[in-house]
Amino acid sequence: MTDDNHHAGDGEGHERVPSRQRRRFPGISSRAYEHPADRSALVALRKLTGFDTVFKALSGLLPERSLRLLFLSDSVRVSDAQFAHLNTMLRDACYILDLEKVPPMYVNQDPNPNAMCIGLDEPIIVVTTGLVELLDEEEMRAVVGHEVGHALSGHSVYRTILLFLTNLALKVAWIPLGNVAIMAIVTALREWFRKSELSADRAGLLVGQDLKASMRGLMKLAGGNHLHEMNVDAFLEQAEEYEAGGDLRDSVLKILNVLPRTHPFAAVRAAELKKWAESRDFQRIMDGHYPRRDEDKDTSVSDSFRQSASSYADNVRTSKDPLMKLVNDLAGGAGDLGGKLRGRFTGQGGQDSRNNGGSAPDPEDKQP
């Protein structure tokens, strides 16, 4: 792997020099940056009863051409002539991640900052005017890399199905499953997509190679264009407080709050990305040691399952969330779990156990 300062070509022979040199990753597999929870959630989604039926039905209903015509008619296509700076970023991102075919990108008039990668046969990237106006060049570069990461991982198909089912959930009763099954699939799709965002954030960092810019972008998504009023360390402390705070009731509320969302909370995303940026895995990729696409066909599914399970177990073991700590206690066979469950729901820690003649409280129960 070498440092390079050329951009991905789009067949027109144009080349530009980016504002600074960044490493590129020839032949990189999406496995290099995919979050283990992303892969686990996708496997669970594919096993969901009725998913294959819905997937096949919608794949036939949503012709690729209609999507492209929609954006051609009601959005601005990024090119050398329109939003040229975004076109440069897009080609650069595709070059860095070695994505051969540069996907079309459109700018859509919408004051809400958002971006998405959709499409069934081929990915299409859409960014809103609200996002373009909110982010600076390096922050936007990370977002473009994020969407190219979705394209490289093949996420666009499932994202398209999710959008269709979310927008038209009440109008798909003709699918021989019923609304309950449809909503189950929507819920599972959302769960997967929240996890896939963590993978794409990593891809954005590989493209931008500027952690501060990635952090700033996530902060702006949470607090708007008021960076002078915000602080990265304080923002990350919010994620720490969110993860560790409260009792089991708060843990349940967190789950209920996130269910309708397609994206994880911005502070949580920032904390996850910072943790990965400081990991040995990230450094190995930057040093040129990463899985290649030509090895994907030889990848063991069971190895992938083991990695996902190991990651989940590690998250449960190290999490400060009260519910995850209880799960860890259950897995470890800790005594007086009934007392702990009552105590944590009432916010009394180990007090409930003592009042009911239970065993001595676990030292961890001193923490809410």
Could you describe the 3D structure shown?
There is one protein chain. By secondary structure, the chain is mostly helical. It has helices at 36-47, 51-61, 64-74, 84-96, 129-134, 137-153, 156-168, 179-208, 211-223, 232-244, 248-258, 266-277, 280-286, 301-318, 322-332, 337-346, 351-355, and strands spanning 3-4, 22-23, 76-77, 105-108, 115-118, 124-128. The protein has a four-stranded mixed sheet, with helices on both faces. A two-stranded antiparallel ribbon has the order 1-2. Strand 5 (115-118) and strand 6 (124-128) form a beta hairpin. The longest helix is centred in the middle third of the chain and has 30 residues, at 179-208. The model is unreliable at 5-18, 246-262, 321-338 and 350-368 (pLDDT under 50).
Brief write-up:
The chain has 368 residues and is mainly alpha-helical.
Q: Tags for this entry?
A:
mainly alpha; 6 strands; 368 residues; disordered C terminus; two-stranded antiparallel sheet; globular; four-stranded mixed β-sheet
If you average the pLDDT, what whole number results?
74
Structural class: mainly alpha
* SS elements, strand count: 6
Task: Identify the overall geometry.
Answer: globular
Please state the CA-atom Rg, rounded to the nearest Å.
22 Å
Which percent band covers the strand fraction?
A: 5-15%
Unreliable residue stretches: 5-18, 246-262, 321-338, 350-368
Q: What is the terminal-to-terminal distance? A: 48 Å
Largest sheet entry: 4 strands, mixed
